[in-house]
User: Fold this.
Amino acid sequence: MQPSTAAIHAGYDRNPVTGATAVPIYQSASYAFDSAEELADIFAGRAPGHVYSRISNPTTHALEQRLNAMEGGVGCIATASGMAAIASVCLALLRPGDEIVAPRGIFGGTVSFFQHVLGNFRIRSVFVDAADAQAFRNAVTTNTRMIFAETITNPSMDVPDVAALSGIAGEANAPFVLDATVTTPVLARGVDLGADILVHSTTKFINGHGTAIGGAIIDTGRYDWSASPFTEVNELARKAGPMALLAYLRNRICRDLGGCPAPQNSFLMLQGLETLHARMRIHCDNALRLASYLQQHAAVRRVRYPGLPDSPYAERVKRQFGGAGGAILTFDLADRAAAFACLNRFRLAKRMTNLGDARTLVLHPASTIFAEYAADERKALGVGDETIRVAVGIEDFTDLQEDFEQALTG
Ligand SMILES: Cc1ncc(COP(=O)(O)O)c(C=O)c1O
Assistant:
């Protein structure tokens, strides 16, 4: 199945009794069995089944099947949020003394988790220029246990060369963990990008309507866990083969951390998936038109959007994402006061964090997501005081342009 078909049909067909095709919301914490033996077998991993919704749930299972089919992986675990997905993967693989190599300019929550939470456990993160694959290679040491990247860095709007990073990770025998939130399987399937593990914030385009928080982890099956330096996962690989990481995540890390999705939220993600393809096309078209319009506007100093034909990333966007540059862009005005004045004039676009919503959202990243950073650190991340981030929605473009024109000209 192509991803757009899998998004609708994979993992669940219909209720065998009623014929209902929508995945039911199994709003149940736990599950009853006919015998103690059956329950013991499931707990011991000798038989499949759901015992407790912190570990697995039938609604969430359908979402996992669908996402995995879209990405071309060996399996998926859905989580309560994108951050829970990232945290779970890191806590499964990293130990004190280990290192991550990651690009500068990625999502602030991920940077904070790497620096502060993992930092407290003596796990070091080295941040390098997102565009420069050689910088990743140079940062690799014998302690490197993960190469992390985002398909398009949010908010710096850089496009790492994923094939090169995949090669560098392979040479270092470190999994290449790719956050594909902003591209989704519609612009590129994780397996084709050379990722070993994909993480998603399903809160964004997959949900598509700003109605729930969620995340997902997909193992693409590229990384050989049996030859890995990760002792616990390596041991499991003898029994679980390519499913070793997912088994370790489900039965130890996710089970013990408790970052499971609510069944109702999994239903909302399933509903979002069905129209993801159609929405992404409009999101990306609108973003390209908005970026082109902003680029020629007298009040705008700079536009960062990798989908622009004159972007330094145009070739990579074509090679990696079939020419679609995603639906997030940033633009710079004269200074912070101009950025705030413009933000306060928007009538249609909402002053809101989040992205991938049907609505266009505008935000001043320096005073919100990146408020805890020093000014020079923000600058290095591509987040100036004069920068506005736009998460472009699926409204009619003429209405969007009118709103931006009145907001820019006052
Ligand atoms: C690229 C990226 N990854 C991860 C996250 C975290 O996701 P969540 O908010 O679902 O925890 C975000 C949130 O904005 C994001 O933009």
